[in-house]
Structures
1.
Amino acid sequence: MPQILDLANLPDADVVALAQQGREVAYRELLRRYERPVFSLVFRMVRDRTVAEDLAQETFIKVLNHIDKYRPEFKFSSWLFKIANNVAIDHVRRRQLNTISMDGSPNASTAAEIEASSFDIVDQSESALDELQSRELGTAIERAIASLRPEYRSCILLRHVEGRSYEEIAATLDLPLGTVKTFIHRARHQLRDLLQDVRD
Amino acid sequence: MLERHLFPDELELLIDGEEGPSLAPLRAHTDECPACRDLLAVEQELVELLEHLPHTAPTGGFPERVMSQVQVFEPWHVAARDSLRKLVPPPGPWRTLASIGVAGAVASVSALVLWVALRFDMALYVGQLVVERAQGALIAGVGSVVRAALGESAAAALQTGGAPSALLALAGIGSALLVATLGLRGLVAVARRRRS
C-alpha cells in the first residue's frame, strides 16, 4: 500500500482510485490538497468564515462519501469545485447576499462575528508603505470581487485565482463555453471599473 | 498591421498569454497602438493581481471534522485481498516454507481433480452417493424436529412422504414462525404506541 509520502506525488486520478479502494490516507490526501482552494472559493462567495467552514465541510463530506460514484472521465478538481460552487451559490441565493460589505458579513452582529467575516489580506511587502498600499489594493480587489454577481464571481475566481481553463470552468459550472468567456470578460470589465480609483 | 482597435476576444487571447502565428498581427498592433497597449496593460495588471490573491485556510482541525463524518468506503474485494495479505508471512524462511506448502497443496488438489475427471463414471457414482446421504440426513433432521413438535404420527407420515413432505413440513414450520414473529412485533408496536 502506498505511503503518505508517495501519495503527495501522485496525480489526483490515482489518489481518487486509492480512495475508491477504501484507503483512508487517500481521503486525507485529497482533503490536504483541496481544503484551502475549496475554502477560499466558498469564503469569497459567501464572505462569512463560519458559514464558509460549514459549506466547505459539507462539500467535502458530499464528495468523499460519494467517492465511489466519481467518474474518471472528468477531472476530480472540476467535480469538487462544481459541488463547492453549487453549495455556495445555493447559500448565497438563500441569503440573498447580493451586496456584501468588505468590513464583515452583513449577518455579523457581534465584534467576533465581524472579525471572523472580514478578509485578512496576507502581505509579503518589504516596507510599511508597500504593505499598506498592498493591503489596501488587496482589500479593494476582495471588495470588488464580492460586489460581482455570484455567477461572475465563480467564473473569475475559478479562472484567475484557481487557474482553471475555460473548458474546465464550463464543465464545472454546467455553462456553455461562450457564456463562461462572456461572464469572465464582463467580470474583468466590472473589476477594472471598480478598481479604477484605487489604481489612480 | 490591423487598421482597427482590437476586439474584446482578441484582447482576451493576449491577456491569456496564448501563443501562435495568428497572434502576431495582434501583438504588432498593440506595439503601434497606444490605446490598445494601455488597455492590455490595465487588463494584464488586473489579472496579475487576481492571480496573486492568497488562498484562505480554514481553522485548525478541519480535516478531522470532515473525516469524522465520512464513511470510508471499502469494496468487498479489497477487504478480502487485505485479509488474505495479512495471512502471508513477512519475507524470509517462513514465507518460503508457506509458499512451498501452498504450491504442494495446489499441486495435490490439481492432481486429484485430474484423476477424478479421468474417472468420470466413478465421480458420478460418488456424487449420487453424496446426494442420497445428504437427502437422508435432511429427512432425518426434519423428522426429529417434527417428532418433537408434532408427535410420532406426523414423523411417520413424513417418512413415508419422502423429500416433498419434508419440504412441505419445513415450509409449514417456517410459516408458523413468521406469523408468530409478526404477531409479537405487532403487539410490541401497539404497546409502545400506548405508552407514548
2.
Amino acid sequence: MTTTRSGEDQHGLVDQAATQLAEGSIGRREFIRFATLLGMAAGVAYTRAGLAAPQMAAPTLPFPAVSAEAKRGGVLRIGQRVTRMIDPALYNWLEMSNQTRPICEFLTLVGTDNVVRPMLLESWLPAPDLKVWTLNVRKGVMWHNGEELTADHVAWNIRRWSDPTLGSSNLGCSTFAALTEYVQAPNSKAKPIRRPLANGVEVLDRYTVQLNLAHAVLSVPEDFGEYGAIVVHPSFVAPFSDRPIGTGPYTLAELRVGEHCILKRVTRMSDGREFRYWGGEVYLDEIRFYDYDLQNQPAALASGSIDALFELTIEQIELARSIPGARILTVPAAQTVCCRMQVDVKPFDDIRVRRAVVLASDNAVIKRLVFGDHGAVGGNFHVAPVHPEYFPLPPPTRDVAAARRLLMEAGYANGIDLTITVGNTDGPWMQAVCEALRNQVKDAGINLAVDVVPESKYQEIWNKVPFGASSWGHRPLGTMVLSQAFRTGASWNESHFSSPEFDAALSEAEATLDIAQRREKMQTVERLLRDAAVMIQPLWRPVFSLASSRVNGYAAHPARQIHLNKVWLS
Amino acid sequence: MVKLLLRRLLQTLLIMLTVSALLFSIFDTDQFRKRIAVAELGSYGVATLSDVDYQAWLEHRGLEQPYLARYAAWLQGIARGDFGRSTEKDVAVSTLLKESLGHTAVLTLFVFLIMVPVSLGLGVLAGMREGSNGDRVISFLAVFSTSIPQVATASFLTVILALGLRWVPAKSAMDDGWSFRQLVLPLLTVLIYDIGYFVRMTRAAMIDVMGSPYIRTAVLKGLPYRRVILTHALRNALIVPVTLLCLELNGLLSQVVVVEVFFQYRGFGRMLFDAANFGDTQVIQAATLVAVCVAVGSQLLSDVAYGYLNPRLRAP
C-alpha cells in the first residue's frame, strides 16, 4: 500500500513551517521536530531546514551512521542493575527496557537529538484534528519465530498498553489514555470505571493501523518511544524471559537477576530459516549486562570489569575524569525534580502560602549549588529549554519581603512550619535541592523540615504526600508531562492541580500544529501553571554516561535509553 | 549434652515460629500490599489503576487471602522443604539461599582462617607483657582498626589498592567466575575490623590471667616462662575469645551486609538487602529462618566450646 510519507500534501503545514523558518519566526530544530511530527522523515526535515542531518545508517532507518572502520565482533559489558524481565508493558525500571531493547523493539525511536523517528513503523500520518492517526507498519520485519510483523500484532500491543486493568505505566501517556473512557458501572452509585474505547484501535489492512482517539493528542509518535511501549509477539506469556520473541537482532541467552543478563545474536529463526535483521548490519556478538549499583559503576569500569555503564551521577564526574581511557558522555535533558504542593491540602490550599514558598526560593542559586555549571535553571512551569515548544517566560525572581507579606495575609504572621518529603528517587542530589530550599525559605519565616524517606517508600507515597520532591524523567515534548501530571484527573496528577482554564489552554496548544502559534499558546499554558504556584522546579539536569574509549557509538540519551544496534568495539 | 541440644532445638523452633508469624502479620498490612504492588508494577503503573482495578489486581495476585490461610500454606511449604519463590529474582528461594549462603560461607571461612591465628597470636603477645613496647604498638593498632567504620575502610582500600595501585579489582561481583583477587578487598575490610576487636579481647583476657595467683606461683616455682605461658596461661586466657569467636559467626552474618553491598559480593547480606528493598516477602521469610538458625547454632557452639575449655563447667 502506498501512503504519503509526509503530511505536507494533506496539511500544507510543512510548507507553512518552512516559510516561517525562512522568515525566522521558528528555529531550525523546531522546524525539524515539527516536520517529523507530521511524519516527514527526519533526514528530509534536516535538509529542508538547511542543517546537516545527523548521519544516519540509511535514510529509512532510525539508527545513526556507522564509521566505515566499524568492525564486527566482540562482547560489550555494560554495568547496570540487572532486573527481572516479566512483562514489558509493566516495566517500571529503565534498566528493564535496556535489557529488552536489543530483543524487542519500539514503534518509534527518540534519538539522542530528541527527534522522534519511525522504527517498527515506516511512517505515521495524523489527521488535522490529531484525533485520528494512521500508522504504517514497516514491511519485512521478521519475528524470531519466522512470522512477519503485521498490523494485527501492532494493534494487539496498543490495545494491551491501553488496558486499564493491567496497571501499565503506559496508560499515563496521553495516547493510551485517549484510547480509554470512563463508563458508569451497572450499579450507578459506584464511581465510573475506566474501560478501553470500543473502536480505538482499528486494523485497516496487513500493514496499516488506525487510532481513533477520544481527544486530540500531539505526542503519539513520542508516546510510542516511551520505555514501556515495547512491541512483543501476541503469543506473549509472562515471564518474558522464559520465551522471548522479538524483532531485534539479539535474543536472551541467560538471565540471572542481580547478576547478569546475556544477549546473543539471532542467526536463525525458530523455523530454521536465516534471520535477517531489518535494521541492517549489527556489530556486537554479545551484549552482557552486569549487575552493578549506580554508585559502584565507575569503579567497576575503572578496574576493567565493564566497558560502559548505565548512568554517571553528578558526584561521580571527578572520579570518572581520573579514569584513563574512559570517555564521559553527556546530553541535555528535561530530567528534573518537581517540589510540588497539593493544592487541595491544608495549608497549601491557600495560594498565598504556595506563592510565598515559591517567592522565597531562588532557583538559580539552587541549580548552581547542586549542579554547578551543568544543567539549566527551571522556571516552575515544567517545560524545558530542550522542548520544541518551550516559551521562555522571564525567570522567577526571589522576593522575600513579598513572601512574608503573603504569609501575613494568609494568617501566618509568625511564620509557618512545613515539611517536604524526599525519597532521592533520582539520586542524593534531590535531597541537596530540598536542603538548599530549606535554607532559602527560612528567610521568609518558613520553617521547612526535610523528611528523607527511603526510595522504595517514596515510590509508595509519591502522589500522596502534601509537599513532596518527585523526580520526573525526560519527555521529548513539553506538552507530554503537562498532560500527564497537571491536567485535571490525569493518573499522575500528584499536585491535584485542577484548572479548567489551564486544561483548555493546554488542549488548544496540543491541537495546534503550527509551531509558532503553538509556542504562543504555550506562553499562556506556562504562565497559568507558573502563576498557580504549584511547584518549585529549580533545575533541569543533564544526563551523563561513561564508556571506555574502545566502545564506539555509545551515547548518553536524554531518557537514559541504551541503543546498541550500531555500537561496535575497536 | 543431649539435654542441652534438645533444649536449643526447641528454642530454635519457638523463635522461628514467633518471628515468622510476626513477619507475616507485617506483610499482611494494606501498606505492605501497596509496597508489593509498587515493586511489581512501579509507582507510575499503580497510579494508573482505579480503586476497583487495584483491588482486582491484589486478588489476582493472591494477596487478599486471609492471614491464617496464607501462613498455614507457607508453613506447609516449609515443612516440605519448599521455601517459595522470589518475586524479584524469579527463582526458587532455596536456590537463592544455597548460592548466597555458599558465597558468604567462603568469605567467612577465609575470615576465620586468617583472623583466628593472627588475632589470638597478637592478643596473647600483647597481653603477656602488659605495658611493654610490643603491647603498646599492638594495642594502638587494634584500637585504631576497630574505630574505623567498615564503609570507610572499604572506601580507603578501594581507592588505594584498586584505583590507585591497581593490584586488585574494585568490585567483587565475580561476573566471569570465581576469582580470589576479587575476594581480597571484602576480606581485608572484614579482617581489619575483626582482628582489632579480637586482639583487644584476647589481650584483656591474657592480662587477667597473667595477674592471677596461679601464674605467679608457676613463675616463682621456677618453671620456664615459655611453659608458664603455653600450658598454664593460654588455656584459661582463650576461654573468652574462643567463646566470642563462635558468637562472631552470627555477628558476621549481619556485618557482611555492609561489605557485600559495597563490593557487590553476592552473598547472604546482599541478598537480604535486595529482598528488603524490593519487598520480596518469601526471601525475607526464608532468610530470617536461616538467621535464627545461625544465631542459635552459634550460641550452641559457643556453649559447647566454653564447656570444653572451662573445666569448672564439666560434669563431675
